[in-house]
Design brief:
four-stranded mixed sheet, globular, 298 residues, 47% helix, 9 strands, binds guanosine-5'-monophosphate, alpha/beta
């Protein structure tokens, strides 16, 4: 007798497919940014239910910095693995061979030049840390943002920011000259000029962006390989002290920024790495190391 197949919940199935695709995209972007080691992803794929297991071996290899289409084909043919295989479907032997390859690759591959985004809550000291990096690590390039706010005493146009008016900022946005842009603290607009970043990456050199969280999210969308670093205060009280202590904002503005800071702190899990700003030199050094520079370059 012919039995009818059970009814398929198409909506649920397509939702599950979208979620699985997203989970795979996240794994790939974590590999690309250096946040996840390929060898750890391979190990995680032993769990058949994991996102890593459902990743095709071709997609997996392509996510690794410096491995392109041609290299992927060669590696798979050397290892005797069909390109359509998923990580979870690899045989024992294939798994061992791939792990061996990844181990060798990791040891021999150069540090990857990338965009490093430094974000964090207001008043955490991003500006101070990036200033320290600028002064002590001249090999690190820091992107110069455009902003519609007026220069503060001592700030130099073209060094601290490109100070522009609203009209010029609108023009830059319309001409797609900004990699990201956002209105910060409900007041002024800030944006990262795209061309210097691209020029820098073409030279295989890393660049540091010190921007707010809205901007960081836009960069991550556009450049999943960017490494996202979140600067944390040693404690909430310390953050309040810093904001009130610097005395540059009115009490109302301080209140507004503190409530923004609470929301911003909640975003930390979206980042690849967290650095606590308990000492500026140490935080700076950690960030420089996350950029792939070795300390002896200092
Ligand atoms: P300030 O006006 O104190 O120099 O900076 C205010 C805020 O704007 C800081 O949180 C800083 O990270 C952020 N910011 C500076 N440049 C940019 C930028 O290019 N893009 C975005 N999204 N935020 C920026």
């Amino acid at each position: 007798m012919n039995q009818k197949p059970p009814p398929v919940d198409r909506v649920a199935a397509s939702r599950a497919a979208v979620a699985a695709r997203r989970a795979r995209a996240l794994v790939k972007s974590r590999i690309a940014s250096g946040a996840a080691r390929p060898i750890d992803v391979l190990a995680a794929s032993e769990d058949r239910e994991s996102a890593a297991a459902s990743l095709r071996v071709t997609q997996f290899l392509r996510a690794i910095p410096h491995i392109g289409i041609t290299k992927t084909e060669r590696i798979l043919s050397d290892l005797g693995i069909a390109p359509v295989k998923r990580l979870g479907g690899l045989g024992r032997n294939q798994r061992v061979k791939l792990a061996e390859f990844l181990d060798t690759w990791e040891k021999s591959s150069p540090d990857v030049p990338r965009v490093i985004v430094l974000a964090g809550p207001t008043a955490v000291g991003k500006g101070t840390v990036s200033q320290y990096i600028r002064e002590n690590f001249p090999q690190v390039q820091i992107s110069i943002s455009a902003t519609t706010r007026k220069p503060r005493p001592g700030e130099v146009d073209g060094k601290d920011y490109y100070f522009v008016d609203d009209e010029e900022f609108d023009r830059m946005v319309a001409a797609n000259e900004l990699l990201e842009h956002a209105t910060v603290h409900n007041s002024f607009r800030y944006g990262t000029p795209r061309a210097p970043i691209e020029a820098r990456l073409e030279q295989q050199e890393p660049v540091l962006l010190e921007i707010d969280i809205q901007g960081a999210r836009q960069v991550r969308e556009q450049m999943p390989e960017a490494r996202m670093v979140f600067l944390l205060p040693p404690s909430w009280d310390e953050l309040v002290n810093r904001l009130v202590g610097r005395g540059t904002e009115s009490p109302e503005e301080q209140e507004r920024r503190l409530s923004t800071a609470k929301v911003e702190l909640a975003a930390q899990d979206e980042f690849d790495a967290r650095v606590v700003n308990d000492s500026v030199p140490q935080a700076a050094q950690k960030i420089v190391r996350l950029m792939g520079f070795r300390e002896d370059l200092n």
